[in-house]
Write the structure tokens for this entry.
Amino acid sequence: AGLSTLVAGTGMLGAFALALAALRLASAAAVSAVRETSVVIAVALARRRGWRALAVVCLLAVTGVTTQVLKHALAQPRLEHWLPEQVATNSWPSGHSTAAMTLALCAILVAPPALRASAAMLGGAFAVGVGYAVLVLGWHYPSDVLGGFLVAGLWTSLAVAVLHRVEAPEPARRPLWEPLAGLAAGAGVVAAVVLG
């Protein structure tokens, strides 16, 4: 409500519309988190990656608990005189940002190797969108969002290290472009010899 109140008071309708869109994004993220989590777990199970499905469940639980513990353990007033409404004292790290980044990293974790780059782009856009929404709404400072991203990254890194120990490695597959690149190079050599 902080930034949207300021924007509405100055008559900047475009920015106010942006704040309303950010509110819708944050609400949609909270409502659909269970569905998205179920999809990520289903993908891991469909790929016969039970350890990764378990990692997703554990990651979502442990990052949420870590965030709540840190919020209450490190709560302190952070008054900023330029803000019309103050951010809560127990806002570091952002729970919304932690959940969004954890879900994005879990999607990357369970995606097949060929789709990981796409999962990273979409998941990253989702996490940045949620982080931006909580900033625009005045719920958090940028450091709160970054703290949430770091909590998600730390626990996901630990989960990946454990998965490397307990899970069989995925079979190595050559990228589709590799044989085509070889053919193109061979055709280039033949053309150079013939035309040469």
